[in-house]
């Protein structure tokens, strides 16, 4: 996950006492179901009922204002033809524009008061988006007409708390987006389980058959273009994407942030091993590290599962953008780890008084009461099928706000083709099952306010001077259509053209073929055979997690050039890259597919496609076109 621009705050700093006067008390009798679990836990078994007195810090996400205008507001500062292009918002402007109505705050406070919660037990976030209620499980069950159970993972033995559904008074529903922790189940083990990284699939895995054979002394790998179909290095990437000679000059203004989730962490020796061979001036250089939610850059556990992702991200991002400082946003403690919500809490608030952890079943609540957990206050790849629509939309909204403030957010599109994480597909009711036949879109890649990055490869026995194909070695580029998000305006023409001229051989029984939903990925870059320094030796890795930091590095180069010219950062890039101005700035990928769910998947073809998006960047063309914008 990558934040290749400024780290800006939305004001979700320390909790503040609620100061809104509630209307007079009324009786709330009729309750309606507000959310149901998106999918039943796959690989988890019902264990037992939790202790009724267990503390459950309830967080109520209030309905925000002006969200129906978010896309148009974001387009106004992101579309190249807009007179407002590049006029990004301040954090306070964002807070003021989207804060819930006072009526919503008052109504929900009234409901809580009538349900027996004193004002001392209720706090509000500084951006007014969340109410926190200190309550026991028994109190929460009464409040929400819910029943909580503890589930145990069949392999790791880890436990999670969740309810199947919850209800709120009919007159309150319109004022609430979602309530956590409730139905939002983490369908995979938490980051403290090493199996998570083996299953996540974002990085792929070392290749024991094609990987470079290394002695215990880790002999150098020569940087050459001769073997780029077998080993991708910095020189291969620069040749593939016509990267001009680069030396960052706006480093004090520019920022490239990379998020890692504990216990995944880089090893300093691995960085130096890589740099010594491919970028000698970086030997001894480290990223600027910000620790979020009790995070540590742990070195006790060393293996591909613990170090692969972080080593990959930092080795290539630092080397490609040198001497730009890379900011490492290490997130989560060693006990509960972390997730997307923790990171969003961090960038949505001041880094001095973070409050993160919206979802303890996914992200951990701080202070962490578990042995060894972080005791301080919180510093501020899943599939669509395993997240509720309300939760997905709430998270996606935050990415849109960051775009308004000038940040570019990149996510890998997934490594399982048209299937979800772990190659899981869906049944006819949209539930993840073994041998499912319905395609399973990745989230947050389907969020229309982020840039989803797919994967390509140098085809076997080809050179970097020949067209790449969609990645079909070890991993398959994630792509398809969302079952949650509507199609954004910026991609209507490109997606409509694909569906008209290259209609997929599938029906609505396999994917959302309505033509009215968000399609992904947006673009792609090489994701096969990357040489990385890992645990003291060189190995090969595969995945869209290779592609994403590379594209992030290219956007950092673009921002460096714009800042040097006295212009602002590019921010949300999707409306720009889909525009006619940029149609020649990408290498169209026209071969390969993204098989999954026992099908060949989709096929890369002329123009945008749901395998490699618009294609791969040509950096020498991208920079001057971006420089031509205001």
CATH fold call of the largest domain: Rossmann fold
Fraction of residues in helices? 10-25%
- Largest sheet entry: 5 strands, antiparallel
| CATH architecture label of the largest domain | 3-Layer(aba) Sandwich
The domain count comes to 2
- Radius of gyration using CA atoms only: 24 Å
Stretches with pLDDT under 50, minimum 5 residues: 1-27, 191-218, 350-381
Distance between the termini: 28 Å
Pfam family, one: Pro-kuma_activ
Active site: 309, 313, 545
Protein name: Peptidase S53 domain-containing protein
Domain Peptidase S53: 231-629
Please give a structural write-up.
This protein has two domains: 2-8 and 193-628, 3-Layer(aba) Sandwich (Rossmann fold); 16-180, no CATH class. Mean pLDDT is 84; it is low at 1-27, 191-218 and 350-381. The longest helix is centred in the last third of the chain and has 21 residues, at 544-564. With 630 residues, the protein is α+β, with helices and mostly antiparallel strands. Helix 12 crosses helix 14. It has 14 helices and 28 strands. The strands form ten sheets. It has a five-stranded antiparallel β-sheet with strand order 2-6-7-5-11. A four-stranded mixed β-sheet has the order 1-12-14-13. Strands 16, 20, 21 and 24 form a four-stranded mixed β-sheet that branches. InterPro entries: Peptidase_S8/S53_dom_sf, S53_propep, Sedolisin_dom, Tripeptidyl-peptidase_I. GO terms for molecular function: metal ion binding; serine-type endopeptidase activity; tripeptidyl-peptidase activity. Its main location: secreted. Residues 185-198 have a biased composition (Basic residues). It holds the Pfam family Pro-kuma_activ.
């Amino acid at each position: 996950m990558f934040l290749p621009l400024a780290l800006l705050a939305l004001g979700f700093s320390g909790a503040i006492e609620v100061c809104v006067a509630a209307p007079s008390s009324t009786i709330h009798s009729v309750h309606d179901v507000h959310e149901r679990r998106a999918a039943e836990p796959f690989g988890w078994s019902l264990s037992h009922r939790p202790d009724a007195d267990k503390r459950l810090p309830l967080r109520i996400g209030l309905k925000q204002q002006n969200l129906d205008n978010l896309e148009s507001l974001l387009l106004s500062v992101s579309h190249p033809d807009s007179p407002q292009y590049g006029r990004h918002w301040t954090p306070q402007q964002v807070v003021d524009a989207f804060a819930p109505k006072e009526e919503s705050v008052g109504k929900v406070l009234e409901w809580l008061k009538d349900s027996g919660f004193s004002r001392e037990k209720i706090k509000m976030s500084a951006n007014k988006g969340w109410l926190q209620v200190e309550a026991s499980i028994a109190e929460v069950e009464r409040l929400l007409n819910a029943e909580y159970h503890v589930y145990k993972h069949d392999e790791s033995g880890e436990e999670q708390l969740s309810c199947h559904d919850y209800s709120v008074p009919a007159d309150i529903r319109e004022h609430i987006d979602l309530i956590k922790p409730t139905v939002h189940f983490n369908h995979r083990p938490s980051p403290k389980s090493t199996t998570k990284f083996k299953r996540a699939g974002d990085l792929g895995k070392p290749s024991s058959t094609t990987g470079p054979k290394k002695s215990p002394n880790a002999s150098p790998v020569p940087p050459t273009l001769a073997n780029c179909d077998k080993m991708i290095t910095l020189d291969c990437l620069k040749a593939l994407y016509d990267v001009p000679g680069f030396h960052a000059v706006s480093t004090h203004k520019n920022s490239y942030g990379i998020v890692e989730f504990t216990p995944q962490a880089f090893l300093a020796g691995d960085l130096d091993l890589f740099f010594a061979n491919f970028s000698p001036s970086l030997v001894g250089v480290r990223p600027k590290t910000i620790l979020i939610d009790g995070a540590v850059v742990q070195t006790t556990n060393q293996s591909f599962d613990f170090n692969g992702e972080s080593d990959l991200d930092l080795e290539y991002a630092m080397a490609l953008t040198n001497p730009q400082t890379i900011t490492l946003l290490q997130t989560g403690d060693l006990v509960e780890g972390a997730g997307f919500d923790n990171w969003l809490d961090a960038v949505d608030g001041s880094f001095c008084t973070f409050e993160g952890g919206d979802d303890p079943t996914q992200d951990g609540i701080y202070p962490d009461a578990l042995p060894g957990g972080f005791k301080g206050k919180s510093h501020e790849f899943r599939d669509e099928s395993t997240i509720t629509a309300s939760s997905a939309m709430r998270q996606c909204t935050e990415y849109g706000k960051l775009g308004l403030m000038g940040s570019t957010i990149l996510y890998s599109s997934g490594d399982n083709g048209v299937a979800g994480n772990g190659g899981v597909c869906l049944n006819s009711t949209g539930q993840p099952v073994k041998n499912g036949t319905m395609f399973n879109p990745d989230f947050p890649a389907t969020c229309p306010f982020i840039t989803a990055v797919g994967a390509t490869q140098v085809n076997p026995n080809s050179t970097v001077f020949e067209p790449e194909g969609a990645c079909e070695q070890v991993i398959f580029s994630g792509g398809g259509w969302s079952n949650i998000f509507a199609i954004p305006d910026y991609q209507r023409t490109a997606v409509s053209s694909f569906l008209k001229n290259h209609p997929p051989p599938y029906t609505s029984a396999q994917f959302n073929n309505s033509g009215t939903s968000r399609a992904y990925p947006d673009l792609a870059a090489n994701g096969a055979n990357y040489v990385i320094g890992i645990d003291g030796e060189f190995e090969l890795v595969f995945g869209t997690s290779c592609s994403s930091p590379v594209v992030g590095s290219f956007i950092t180069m673009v921002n460096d050039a714009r800042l040097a010219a006295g212009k602002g950062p590019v921010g949300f890039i999707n409306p720009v890259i889909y525009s006619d101005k940029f149609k020649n700035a990408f290498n169209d990928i026209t071969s390969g597919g993204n098989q999954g769910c026992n099908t060949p998947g989709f096929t890369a073809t002329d123009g945008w496609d749901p395998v490699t998006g618009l294609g791969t960047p040509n950096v020498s063309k991208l920079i001057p076109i971006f420089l031509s914008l205001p």
